[in-house]
Amino acid sequence: MAPKYQSIANALRLEIENGLYSGKQLLPTEQLLCQRFQISRQTVRRALSLLEEEGLITRRQGSGSHLRERTEPEALLNCTIAVVTTYISDYIFPGILQGMETVLTANSSAPLLFATQNQISTERKILQTLLTMKELDGVLVEGSKTALPNPNLDLYQKLTERGVRLVFINGTYPELSSTPSVLADNYGGGKLLVEYLYQKGHQNIAGIFKNDDMQGTLRYAGYAESLCRLGLPLEDSQIYWYNTESRKFFLSDAFLDPILDGFTGCSAIVCYNDEVAIRVVSQLKKRGVRIPEEMAVVSFDNSQYSELAPVRITSLSHGPHNLGELSAKLMLRLLRGETCQSEVVPWQLVEKESG
Question: Which residues does 297 contact at the CB level (< 8 Å), separation at least 6?
Answer without folding.
Answer: 268, 269, 271, 277, 280, 281, 284, 291, 311, 313, 314, 354, 355
